[in-house]
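Morning!

As promised:
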Amino acid sequence: MPLTPEQEAEIEDLRAAPKPTLRAVSEGAEAHLYKVHPVLDHGFVRMVDYMGDDSAICQAARVSYGRGTKSVSNDEGLIRYLMRHWHSTPFEMCELKLHVKLPVFVARQWIRHRTANVNEYSARYSILDREFYIPRAEDLAAQSAQNNQGRGDVLNPEESARVLQWLREDAMRSYDHYEAMISDTSPEGEGQQGLARELARMNLPANIYTQWYWKVDLHNLFHFLRLRADAHAQYEIRVYADAICEMVKDWVPMAYRAFEDYRLGGVTLSTMAVECLRRMLVGEEVTQETSGMSAREWREFQGVLKKHD
Amino acid sequence: MPLTPEQEAEIEDLRAAPKPTLRAVSEGAEAHLYKVHPVLDHGFVRMVDYMGDDSAICQAARVSYGRGTKSVSNDEGLIRYLMRHWHSTPFEMCELKLHVKLPVFVARQWIRHRTANVNEYSARYSILDREFYIPRAEDLAAQSAQNNQGRGDVLNPEESARVLQWLREDAMRSYDHYEAMISDTSPEGEGQQGLARELARMNLPANIYTQWYWKVDLHNLFHFLRLRADAHAQYEIRVYADAICEMVKDWVPMAYRAFEDYRLGGVTLSTMAVECLRRMLVGEEVTQETSGMSAREWREFQGVLKKHD
Amino acid sequence: MPLTPEQEAEIEDLRAAPKPTLRAVSEGAEAHLYKVHPVLDHGFVRMVDYMGDDSAICQAARVSYGRGTKSVSNDEGLIRYLMRHWHSTPFEMCELKLHVKLPVFVARQWIRHRTANVNEYSARYSILDREFYIPRAEDLAAQSAQNNQGRGDVLNPEESARVLQWLREDAMRSYDHYEAMISDTSPEGEGQQGLARELARMNLPANIYTQWYWKVDLHNLFHFLRLRADAHAQYEIRVYADAICEMVKDWVPMAYRAFEDYRLGGVTLSTMAVECLRRMLVGEEVTQETSGMSAREWREFQGVLKKHD
Amino acid sequence: MPLTPEQEAEIEDLRAAPKPTLRAVSEGAEAHLYKVHPVLDHGFVRMVDYMGDDSAICQAARVSYGRGTKSVSNDEGLIRYLMRHWHSTPFEMCELKLHVKLPVFVARQWIRHRTANVNEYSARYSILDREFYIPRAEDLAAQSAQNNQGRGDVLNPEESARVLQWLREDAMRSYDHYEAMISDTSPEGEGQQGLARELARMNLPANIYTQWYWKVDLHNLFHFLRLRADAHAQYEIRVYADAICEMVKDWVPMAYRAFEDYRLGGVTLSTMAVECLRRMLVGEEVTQETSGMSAREWREFQGVLKKHD
């Protein structure tokens, strides 16, 4: 259970007290505010604040005095045009603030997206909780044979059981020692000084949970989601991206639809691939040999053309 | 008058329709929303949206589940601590969106602050209005003799009159030609094709007004204000910075007070200056010769010590 | 002529004195260093410094101890893989520093690319030269009827002559007054104070030339080039992008080829477009009506499929 | 020993083959290139590339055609002026690329400095080495009683021995299990699939070493060094900052001296502190009560005035 009753109560308090505002309000986002969306075994994503809505994108694109909206269909057309032609600045005019609880190894991937603001729970200052990500057996996959950085088949039950036992035991033992090191009591019950927290944390494995506030504009969020909600992303970060997608869909529904059509579901083709397509569309037979592509590129190209057949 | 009656009406509409929100609300900011704060002869600053308030800074610093506030005095203490010790990330958790109308030469200085989001009115797409910044006579100053990039005394009336006449006439003539070039009618009243707007704009001088939406987080806004609300900044950008200071003071009063105390009114002293101070405080007489500073640094140092005497 | 004999001599001096270095050296880049590549009537681009080469991209991608190169073909394969899969960080490990002279209205577009370092010639501090961009008659195009922000047909000779005369006369008159305003002599030959430069510059039109040092990493440079070397970019910035492309081609030839194949010549297709393609490739007749696309999107899609037929 | 003989040989090869270049060359930086500067027990910093030198800062500040140098003393004066007045863009014109080996918990602090380019060794792709940071006994300090995020006294020998044993044993056991999980052989010697590396890494504690290429401009590097070479920074990152300071001192000696004088050794005083100083300098007795400062601020202020007495 990720939240204590006190934390639940705090969230209820916040949701119980709407206040009037003159700012752009997104009904879809209001429904999400502060609520915990569980992710993995102990993690979550919560929307803490947002700025702007679909019409704020149009308002900025038009540099207008009022709401910027002409008509709903007109707005959607403009948003789709902006997305299709990579006009990114109007999307930067919306902003999202999230509270995320996530394993450290996921946090290390996430933080590579530098165009965002972050406040992480400080382990120099505070004591981390005894919470570790232990995968479900069905998520324990073997190293992929094809893809050097991906996963292959699910492990068989014995191997899987062995892995889970190590993960659990090592996490518990590391945390026991972490606690013992920062304690003012020695294992024999005598007083001790207690190791500095900034040092003791080094004993904790990368599946321990951390937390942060993460704030990002919509353009950079879409970039993050395109990479991390993708089938090639590591499962443990993808589930966070998926949870965020659900929020964004409700917050800025027009922008999200355009994002789905032109980015998430879109594909980028190389000069060679476009040339092949043109030949294929006039009836020419094209093979890898006559395509000018490498074997790997050809395979990827075939994947684009045949998907869902 | 910067606004048309239609624009005034649009703004009134926006201010007349508060909606409920669960987000952090700053009463001080709500009072500013959408209103026009005139700057220079035709310019303005308007607050279009904001995210967060003083307690959102504390909430992020504490990575808390609820509002993050413990007590008001506690919050102010935390904010002052964060400002004093250059912990900038909690301030990045607040965001401000402004609509600004400003002369192009001011826009060119402003845009050097890169950590912000901008949507500018497009002169490739739209036709610019006939509005130019013409300084008041009392703002027409001579080149400074001391400071290579500053201003000295106010021009005498004759010189000033000459300057103003040139500025006005050149602006009007350039705009006449701009209009004539993009028109579908020639000066003789015959049809013409009309030059592309993206080309015609090159004839317009740098005192023409442009507009943009500008969005920035509070940390970067403070950085902008420290440089641009400073006595060394060009007057024409300083008046915009001053207008923004008034808004920020009402939006996040605790953070603004800390900013005033530790940044705006604060000074940075070099190793040599600190060493001199220590000697002076124990009664030693220190001169430029014995200070280790250059003449210019010594003058600046004296300015710090003697100000307001 | 963009350079004075003194400037030419300074450049010759720099090119005459190679020094030994242990850093990665790109022969192709060395041939460009400091040389002036003229652009438009008075502008130029010069490469002032560079960091890294093709193998530095691989070295960073592999986090290797030595040069990082395994074999030339292996390096090219890796670079193409990184480009195809949007792994941008290795390209960020190369850096280019340019000295550019360009009209102010081009500089205003250029500066919107924020992820770069800029030092511009200061018109608060220094006096701008009497150099203005005056287009060639064949570059004077009418506003496009189809595309709201583009150009259509070239103006006819009479209209063109009218435009050129206005541009030339307004530029000269504005500059005459700029000089007169900052001068210590009045038009009547008497002494005057001389208006501050930071004010006088406001009278200068947007086709005056400015200069800057611009430094950018290769990933962000590619992003700039993709947008600005594109057919939809304004001609006056595209010629700068084209000149930079020639330098990059010589500096990092493998990376540039990958950029050409996957970005410059590549296309991004939406979910609907990919779906249509799949149907077309199995022989189905698809029309705009059955495509799910808007008229405009369908036209763009047809453009991709039929180009060069 | 951080390097294998093969790695040492690669470095020797790189250092043995100087090539001619026309770019700015810093003799001080050349002496460092590729060499390993050991930090902590298994870490290091190596300079992999640099762009620019002291005169490149002046060249950019002056937007000059040639080297930009007028005279050495003139250059140093300009650099000091730029530093003192927070003109940061000329310093951004120099760039440094480092190869760093560092414990994961240090990497997590380091990466918060977002304005830099990073390529980290991928633990999804590759297998991490069995190398862990184990502090020296004299670096094992207790949690500070005064400062919530700092260290106090060194632990006594018994407590210290206990901590070191836990750190060593937990690291070895976690790594044994990491190896066993990714292996294609089970503990009983039978075949197994081998857990995906991206999952197995979650068992490794934060004192394991990772590596990255890190590239940053000089302005942002100075910001990093000011925060991380500071007495309040955690010891384990400070030793990296110190090692980098030694390199920067040799690479751009003038800029480094200005940085030392105005940033590293400088102090920022608040409005209240400056006011107190003025009163004290005219002989007034000022106490915390009459200063307007909180107890903590007053203590910090006293520290500035009395240091080194």
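Residues 5-129+207-264 of chain B form a domain with the Gyrase A; domain 2 fold (CATH 3.30.1360.170).

Hope this helps with the figure draft.
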